[in-house]
Amino acid sequence: MKKMAFRCWVKSQMAKQKLHKKAEDLLSEECGGADSIVIAVIIIIIVIALAVIFREQIIAFVQSLFGKATEDAEAGGFM
Fold it and tell me: What is the pLDDT of residues 7-39, one digit of tens each?
């Protein structure tokens, strides 16, 4: 009977250790996940700020690209 009780105790200790390790892994992964989200949000904010700051230059650049593409298409007989 003592042998069976000892086996149960050993198994419970092993399960406790596994659960503790999984909890540590989950908490460490969540921390890394949050860092990645914060970095992504900061990058998005920077890109939006740059787009707002250089709005006129971006619009002029895109219009010149489309204007050139239209001229090339007309010159090539595509339109």
Answer: 887 888 888 888 888 878 777 765 556 778 889
- Give the pLDDT confidence of 40-54 residue by residue, as tens digits: 999 999 999 999 999
pTM of the model: 0.46
- Cβ atoms within 10 Å of 58's Cβ, excluding its own: 13
37, 43, 47 from 33: Cα distances, Å:
6, 16, 21
In the chain the beta strands, taken as DSSP E runs, fall at none
- Backbone φ, ψ for residue 54 (5° rounding): -105, 30
Q: Are 79 and 70 in contact (CB under 8 A)?
A: yes
Q: Residue 9: which residues within 8 A CB-CB, separation 6 or more?
A: none
